[in-house]
Design a protein that fits this description.
Mean pLDDT: 95
Order of helices and strands: HEEEEEH
Radius of gyration: 15 Å
Helix content: 25-40%
Structural class: alpha+beta
Number of strands: 5
Largest sheet: 3 strands, antiparallel
Strand order of the largest sheet: 1-2-3
Shape: globular
Length: 100
């Protein structure tokens, strides 16, 4: 029997695949969460549309400052001397790549 946190991660990966497929975009989960099963780096959990490599992370709590508020569409974050990252709802992200 798998560890509860492994089960939680597997459920999250399947959710991402299913949400993606539900809007007509191909998505595949890597067997055993190992991207090498998809011909990618081992850290890849999901491959979207055969080109977008995703690592899925599920945590009990995400820091409030990272979350976009109801008044914005996207939150951009970065660490000192780092690169910016965009945080947005997954549904919004799927719409962006679907329309591309």
């Amino acid at each position: 029997m798998a560890h509860p946190s492994k089960n939680k991660g597997n459920r999250f990966e399947r959710l991402i695949v299913n949400l993606t497929k539900d809007i007509g975009i191909k998505a595949k989960r890597a067997y055993a969460s190992d991207g090498r099963a998809l011909g990618c780096h081992e850290e890849v959990d999901v491959l979207i549309d055969g080109r977008i490599k995703v690592q899925c992370k599920s945590r009990k709590k995400i820091a409030n400052w990272m979350m976009p508020s109801e008044h914005v569409d996207i939150q951009v974050i970065k660490e000192d001397r780092g690169i910016p990252y965009a945080v947005l709802p997954y549904d919004d992200y799927l719409e962006l790549i679907k329309n591309k």
